[in-house]
Hints:
The complex is a heterodimer.
Chain A: E1 4-7, E2 10-13, E3 19-25, E4 31-37, E5 43-49, E6 56-57, E7 64-68, E8 74-78, E9 87-94, E10 102-103, E11 107-111
Parallel strand pairs in A: 2-11
Antiparallel strand pairs in A: 1-3, 3-8, 4-5, 4-9, 5-6, 7-8, 9-10, 9-11
Chain B: E1 3-7, E2 10-14, E3 19-26, E4 31-38, E5 44-50, E6 56-58, E7 64-68, E8 73-78, E9 87-95, E10 105-106, E11 110-115
Parallel strand pairs in B: 2-11
Antiparallel strand pairs in B: 1-3, 3-8, 4-5, 4-9, 6-7, 7-8, 9-10, 9-11
Amino acid sequence: xxxxxxxxxxxxxxxxxxxxxxxxxxxxxxxxxxxxxxxxxxxxxxxxxxxxxxxxxxxxxxxxxxxxxxxxxxxxxxxxxxxxxxxxxxxxxxxxxxxxxxxxxxxxxxxx
Amino acid sequence: xxxxxxxxxxxxxxxxxxxxxxxxxxxxxxxxxxxxxxxxxxxxxxxxxxxxxxxxxxxxxxxxxxxxxxxxxxxxxxxxxxxxxxxxxxxxxxxxxxxxxxxxxxxxxxxxxxxx
Lengths: 112, 116
């Protein structure tokens, strides 16, 4: 199993550009999550999807949208990137009935 | 609402010395608690978890943590540090059941440096 995969690994955007971060898991997990990691702030939840067909806001959703395309895939979209969105983005998934989340390798995004 | 505080953003130890990384949590419901490790330029890997069974939890790579409800703490320890333990460590809390859908609240992280 590949686990949780994310693309791209690195991305540089100019202010105002848009892009979509892709995440896929092959563990048949129901729940998926998007976090951002900033120095000294740990990881903060952007959006999550408890199951296929549902999405909900997390702690820091402003400026982002998500799509749970199917059970495997959960994408994060930046419609108009801002320098404040420079961060490392992690996708995670969780099996219903278990407690731990499994994380992808991350996408390092820089907005200039 | 839940919160996690990790005391000390940087901890430095000598190889072979005791490692102690501190984590205190706040939760209005019984918590599940986790320690994750992040090596440079990698994702997060689960070290260990507390889910209301034994209060002393053993994890991978010789790490363990003790859940102390009276102190609302879940400190991470390792008797003898190894150079390969150098990484950033995150404590996280989730509520045990309820409607949180397994959402994790993370602490700020502690960077562990191990000196020869």
